Amino acid sequence: MSERTVPQHLVHKLDPDEVFLTAWQRTSPDSFTVTARWPEDQSFHLGADGSYEPLLVTETVRQLFPLLCHVGYDIPLDQHLVWESYRYALIPDVLHPGTRLGPVELELRVLCTDLVQRRGRPVAMTMHIELLRDGMLHARARSRFTIQAPAVYRRLRADHSDASRAMASALPLQPPVPATESGRHRAEDVLLSPLADHDGPGSAWQLRVDTSHPKYFDHPVDHVPGMLLLEAARQATQAVLHPHPALPVAMETAFHRYVELDTPCRIETQLLPSGLVRVTARQQGELSFRADVLPGAVPLI
Predict the structure, then answer these.
(1) CATH code 3.10.129.10 region(s) in the chain
(2) What gap in Å lies between CA 200 and CA 283, rounded to an integer?
(3) One digit per residue, pLDDT tens: the chain, 301 residues?
(4) Cα 231 → chain centroid
(5) CA distance 143 to 208
(6) 3-state secondary structure of 217
(7) Edge-to-edge, what's the strand order for the sheet holding 266-271?
(8) Kindly report the CA angle at 153 between 148 and 159, in degrees rounded to 5?
(9) What is the spatial distance between Cα 114 and Cα 140, in angstroms, rounded to a whole number?
(10) How far are the Cα atoms of 27, 68, 91, 247 from residue 296, in angstroms, in the given order?
(11) CA 242-272-282 angle, 5° bins
(12) How far apart are CA 80 and CA 154, in angstroms?
């Protein structure tokens, strides 16, 4: 990526090549315009057919959360941003690099609502995002998240708050399902492992978490990242519908509890009458994450 991106610490990244946001400006007290640029050639973000992976849309949106919290609302850099819910809908054309030379340039319009203030700073908010390419609306997203001070986060996470210790205690890496079944073209990017004991309706896998993966784990964390769960939902949707293509053109998710690194996590799918695929992540029988995924059809955004 070009050096003309925002500083990487403002989007909570260590790898500067993973920073996609390039500039920002405030347009009203709680609205902003942010520009972004997508990489031209990165195997993780490009599918086998040369189109962008759907996760790239969400990662671009995710980088807005820390950036605008820090530069727009003076949230200290050590605060923890905790996802409660996230939804998006996109037009598949946004994932096609196109024929023009150079990287894809994007504009993101952001409105922050439902702010909860404490001591003059937000501790929770909802962001509404419109993503434009070549001046045309190509995606919408909405996310609710909380903002936790380090002391509060440590108290809530208790024995799991130490990132280095949590990563050191992560489960051994399990073999992946075939990459083509999960919608990826590299085995190292697959997040699903076969389950031998599944005998219920739908399909199920064990979440495959490689803490040495440079994209899923850009920096040490004390739990399975939310972005990894969103990608696992995409892969589970593709796996249950394989061999039919299942581009996730819309997704609505809820984060119920942290997914720990040292405990097996079961990924299950259910085909809903509406055409959605419901993906759930459970640890020790408790629901941790849910995603309703719309595969294939183009939604009205």
Answers:
(1) 8-151, 161-295
(2) 17
(3) 445 789 999 999 999 999 999 999 999 999 999 999 998 777 899 988 889 999 999 999 999 999 999 999 999 999 999 999 999 999 999 999 876 667 899 999 999 999 999 988 999 999 999 999 999 999 999 999 999 999 999 999 988 989 999 999 999 999 999 999 999 999 999 999 998 775 554 599 999 999 999 999 999 999 999 999 999 999 999 999 999 999 999 999 999 999 999 999 999 999 999 999 999 999 999 999 999 999 985 455 5
(4) 7
(5) 25
(6) coil
(7) 21-28, 31-38, 104-118, 121-133, 136-148, 80-90, 248-255, 286-295, 277-283, 266-271, 204-207, 192-194
(8) 170
(9) 18
(10) 35, 32, 10, 5
(11) 80
(12) 10
Q: How does strand 121-133 pair with strand 286-295?
A: unpaired
Topology of the domain covering 8-151: Thiol Ester Dehydrase; Chain A (3.10.129)
User: Fold for domain 161-295?
Assistant: Thiol Ester Dehydrase; Chain A (3.10.129)
Here the tokens at position 202 are: 């739908």
